[in-house]
């Protein structure tokens, strides 16, 4: 009975997070639809070429598959794969998608908890994988955005700032003397003796994942994986009536990458609001779409990427939950171990 309460609390917390984000997402859809003419958006959804939906979802699924390869690559590189076969690794990765609607997707550290439940891997060792995933995804988005930067010159200053901050962050993170000096300063603070060893483990693992060879391989995987979602967006634009062309593909790549980055740097849950508004605005400005068509395209791509992933995450988490011992181990999770 003592373990039942924490398990119920964990489930309730996950359910509350998803439902809250779902309500926010629905509210955003309604607001941008009202702004764009709700009736016109409804008509565009009815006339959307839904025969393209399988191609759109295939692009999304390939993205998830390649990102799982990156997750699995990190696991095996750090030797955290004890008792973790590829099927279990895939389920853990997919379950993490349920937390895509958390700020910066950092709630995906849930994967670290699920990994510890399976093989006892310390969270301080596996949590940096989530950070490395977000970093390489961000670099990939910058590269994809850069491909179409000539389409929208006003985005150049933001692009330069993001590139500079990314490079600076990586360089600083690789300065081990500096980082360890900061950790020693933390150790002198109240309760620092308890926190410092965990910070040291977190940093040591992060530094391993930021080795240039590992960074290059994982970033390449990210560019290809997110490129498939850009292709999915291209099919979405075709679905609302745009004529297929190389220019449209370039526009789709730039707009999807830019709006995703805007959502990421906004640090809103799942980029809700920032991604949608920037996507609609860029579609109107660059592709010349009517506001209703731009809104329809944005609604479809967000459902087929963000919310489709959350749905898959719920299914995978439920599947893991049916396995023996999962509920007891989830009940015993100690979130303080992350820091």
Written overview of the protein:
It is built from 14 helices and no strands. It is mainly α. Residues 1-7 and 326-339 have low confidence and may be disordered.
The total count of strands amounts to 0
| C-alpha-based Rg, rounded | 21 Å
Tell me the major beta sheet. none
Could you state the order of secondary-structure elements as H and E? HHHHHHHHHHHHHH
What general form does the structure show? globular
Task: Pick out the low-confidence regions.
Answer: 1-7, 326-339
Classification by helices and strands = mainly alpha
Distance between the termini: 28 Å
- Overall pLDDT: 84
Oligomer: single chain
Number of helices, counting only DSSP H or I runs of 4 residues or more: 14
Strand content is under 5%
How much helix, percentage-wise, in residues? over 70%
Features:
339 residues; mainly alpha
Q: What is the element layout, followed by pairings?
A:
Layout: H1 4-36, H2 38-47, H3 53-77, H4 86-96, H5 110-119, H6 123-147, H7 156-173, H8 176-187, H9 192-209, H10 212-239, H11 246-266, H12 274-287, H13 291-321, H14 326-331
Summary of the model, kept short:
The chain is mostly helical.
